[in-house]
Amino acid sequence: MTPVLEISGLRKTYRSRKGVRNALDGFDMVVEAGQVHGFLGPNGSGKTTTLRTLLGLIKPNGGRMAILGREVPQHLPEVAGQVGAIVESPQFFGNFSAELTLSLLADAGGVNRSRVPAVLDQVGLRDRSKERVKTYSLGMKQRLAVASALLKEPKLLILDEPANGLDPGGIREMRTLMRDLSDSGMTVLLSSHILGEIQLICDSVTIISAGRRVTSGSVAEVLAQHTSGAVRVRLETGVDLLDAATTLREAGAQVTLENDYFTVANATNPALITKVLAQRGVYVSELTPVSADLEDVFLELTGTAPVAGQNRQVDESSISGAKNGWGQ
């Protein structure tokens, strides 16, 4: 099956008096049909530039892009009706109601006004639909923006920070909405800084840093490739933690003491922990791998700057190689 979105070797260069800046430096991304795909990166990494270029708002300096199998921007008019998008903060007329706002947008886009109540219901604004937008909170305006992107029942929905301004309940509702849309067959490309939500919502992710891809794949695969290699160790009641930690440090372990346990950061072979301690008459009651979450992976990968001027993606270089640990 043809991917809903394909980006290959995308480049965007800005020139100023300060010199040349590569906002996108050969960036690649693939989004498969029916997925919720997380698009992650620190501020200034090229996320918004990618989305704006994809939607024809910025002209690239090189590379290839395709939406629903059609090359863009050349064929963007042919697929625009099947793409809904919110990029950066949307603006609305404050004196218009949400219902009127969406009705006008439906008319402008050639969409039947019967879609308006349906999308208001989807985003949880039905009961507030006749109130003026200027009375809305930031979170409610975000919901209205999502509703506007859903009007034409797109095959691809692109959302840039849709949870911005939402309270925890609103974030959970937005999470449910994204999953429901995916279950209905819609493909969602979701950019967000709320990494815990991305881990819960998304099927797959792409992480960008300095205009280059640093990793991509299913959430499970990305987490598995970047396990922390650490284990949490608890001992029998009454055992001196400091003494046990000193024993392991003398054997080469990197140990961090906590209140009632310690963590060994470089435990490539956790069995060695039990062996070293047992030789001193100390026995382990718990040995638990410390799983990396998406935030850990994000901070690790985006802290490694790509090499300027090289085409290949960072995750195809030696940077992603295995790390040696204690006891390997």
TrEMBL record:
<feature type="domain" description="ABC transporter">
    <location>
        <begin position="5"/>
        <end position="235"/>
    </location>
</feature>
<comment type="similarity">
    <text>Belongs to the ABC transporter superfamily.</text>
</comment>
<dbReference type="InterPro" id="IPR003593">
    <property type="entry name" value="AAA+_ATPase"/>
</dbReference>
<protein>
    <submittedName>
        <fullName>ABC-2 type transport system ATP-binding protein</fullName>
    </submittedName>
</protein>
<dbReference type="Pfam" id="PF00005">
    <property type="entry name" value="ABC_tran"/>
</dbReference>
<keyword id="KW-0813">Transport</keyword>
<keyword id="KW-0547">Nucleotide-binding</keyword>
<dbReference type="InterPro" id="IPR027417">
    <property type="entry name" value="P-loop_NTPase"/>
</dbReference>
<keyword id="KW-0067">ATP-binding</keyword>
<dbReference type="InterPro" id="IPR003439">
    <property type="entry name" value="ABC_transporter-like_ATP-bd"/>
</dbReference>
<dbReference type="GO" id="GO:0016887">
    <property type="term" value="F:ATP hydrolysis activity"/>
</dbReference>
<dbReference type="InterPro" id="IPR017871">
    <property type="entry name" value="ABC_transporter-like_CS"/>
</dbReference>
<dbReference type="GO" id="GO:0005524">
    <property type="term" value="F:ATP binding"/>
</dbReference>
